[in-house]
Design brief:
- The protein has about 500 residues and is mainly alpha-helical.
- It has helices at about 1-10, 15, 20-35, 35-45, 50-75, 85-95, 100-120, 125-135, 135-160, 190-205, 210-225, 265-270, 275-305, 320-335, 345-350, 355-370, 375-380, 380-395, 410-425, 425-445, 460-470, 480-489, and strands at about 80, 160-165, 170, 340.
- The protein has one domain.
């Protein structure tokens, strides 16, 4: 009892209305919704040439460090892991597209993490000032946009939507190519929809752990019937990261070992940077830009959902949260993975009752189990975990009601922030064009500065808008950053 009381005092259970069982359950919920990263991230990075086991080790360690620092220092229930989208940029744009060696790409991530840490220091506080300068309605729109982003990811992974050459996206078919040998009750899309509805009913009935029950129920049923996983059927247009048929875990235990090639590879690559300094600088700035706004948007939105945004619209312990993110990115780059960031799946644990940093620590410890239980995590069908994302996305959409839609100067920026996240598959793109359009509209209204009488953009907002325009626009096919560094170096 004394131990539990000590834990409660440290994490402020009474103040936040938390319980030990609730925090443990919330941590498990968040972990189950993002455990896929233990498979997907190594699989994606291996395409860039990194050894799978090395990348798996780095993924688990980076997530563990980030979650533990977030929990113990910031005392917030937000989990971290190598970011989806950032790992795709690392693999397909940087290594395969630009021809940059993965060792140099890791060095760029390392430098980006260090810069991230510096600007997050309370003595500097640039990141906190930047986020606080963004208008409240745009930050609220970020939360709703992330909800839509979660939903499109979840529906895609459930097998309910697919790409379409004529309409961009379309409703997928349970008779999709490659699924003809499976009965309807063996189709992952059907199983996941049943699980989704079951989770919704359990949530409506106030049943704690509803998301966990839904994921586990869909997984076990999928294993029993050998369910078809449409997201992993590459021939049918899926991602193909895992097996297209659900099966029981073939093995549970087995340590992946210490990284053989990636550990410290970023340090060894610094000597080769001078050969292509322009591309290196461009890549490093791109990593920094996306990491800043992905993390900022996620932290604010999930923090608002968890009740950690105060009356002044500021996130509690934001400096500590940002520095946790930076520390995890540095550790990840040293061990061998792309940028680590705060996960929007943290909203699943918050929705399930997570209120303190203990939730994040539970996620971090469970992430370490990936070093020993990779077979189990690889066996969880994608469609089973994906239904949780749709539920969480639905709950986050309630934030849109708090936007002042009668403010004609805010309607378009808020709308672009929301819709561009799912349509571009990027949190950063939604935030960027929301800010750019906001500044442009204010200037069009003749509101060039922010005073007590004039509701114009602050100097920080001007700076963010210009920075973002430089990132997206430039001469020819280059961004302004690309043109600048190529000209300079």
């Amino acid at each position: 009892m004394g131990f539990e009381q000590d834990i409660g005092n440290y994490f402020k259970f009474e103040e936040r209305g938390a319980t030990l069982n609730g925090e443990l359950r919330a941590g498990l919920t968040t972990f189950l919704t993002m455990a896929y990263i233990l498979l997907v991230n190594p699989a994606m990075l291996s395409v860039a040439g990194l050894p799978f086991d090395d990348a798996l080790f780095a993924t688990a360690i980076a997530a563990f460090v980030g979650c533990v620092v977030m929990g113990l220092w910031a005392n917030l229930p937000f989990a971290l892991a190598p970011g989806m989208g950032l790992n795709a940029y690392f693999t397909f744009a940087v290594v395969l597209g630009m021809g940059i060696a993965w060792e140099i790409a890791l060095a760029a991530v390392l430098i980006e993490g260090v810069l991230f840490l510096i600007i997050s220091l309370p003595q500097i506080g640039w990141r906190t000032k930047m986020i606080n300068a963004i208008p409240k309605d745009l930050k609220i729109a970020t939360g709703a946009g992330i909800g839509m982003f979660l939903a499109i990811i979840g529906l895609r992974e459930m097998g309910w939507i697919q790409d379409d050459g004529a309409t961009l996206v379309n409703l997928a078919s349970t008779e999709a190519f490659g699924a003809g040998d499976y009965a309807i009750f063996q189709h992952g899309a059907v199983i996941s929809m049943v699980a989704l509805l079951a989770i919704a009913v359990m949530l409506a009935r106030g049943i704690k752990g509803a998301i966990i029950y839904g994921i586990l129920g869909a997984s076990v049923f999928g294993w029993i019937v050998g369910a078809y996983d449409p997201y992993n059927d590459f021939a049918a247009g899926g991602a193909g990261w895992a097996a297209k048929e659900a099966s029981w875990p073939s093995e549970l235990f087995g340590f992946v070992g210490m990284p053989q090639e990636t550990l410290g590879a970023a340090f060894g690559a610094f000597g080769d940077i001078s050969d292509n300094l322009a591309d290196f600088m461009l890549v490093m700035i791109a990593f920094l830009f996306v990491d800043i706004f992905d993390t900022a948007g996620t932290l604010y939105s999930v923090g608002r959902q968890a009740g950690y945004v105060n009356e002044d619209d500021e996130l509690q312990n934001s400096d500590e949260a940002f520095m946790s993110d930076a520390a995890a990115t540095i550790v990840g780059a040293i061990t061998g993975t792309s940028t680590t960031t705060t996960y929007i799946e943290s909203a699943a644990g918050v929705e399930d009752g997570g209120k303190t940093g203990l939730t994040a620590i539970v996620v971090g410890v469970l992430m370490l189990s990936g070093l020993f239980l990779s077979g189990l995590f690889q066996a969880i069908p994608t469609f089973a975990a994906a239904c949780a994302l749709v539920v969480v996305g639905a709950t986050m959409m309630k934030q849109a009601t708090e936007i002042d839609w009668d403010d004609k100067e805010m309607v378009l920026p808020a709308f672009l922030t929301i819709v561009l996240m799912p349509f571009t598959y990027s949190i950063a793109d939604g935030i960027a064009w929301g800010v750019i359009s906001y500044v442009a509209i204010k200037m069009g209204m003749g509101k060039f500065k922010q005073t007590e009488e004039i509701d114009g953009p602050s100097p920080i907002m001007y700076g963010i808008a210009v920075f973002m325009l430089m990132f997206y626009l430039g001469p020819g096919e280059q961004s302004t950053f690309g043109w600048f560094f190529n000209t300079l170096f």
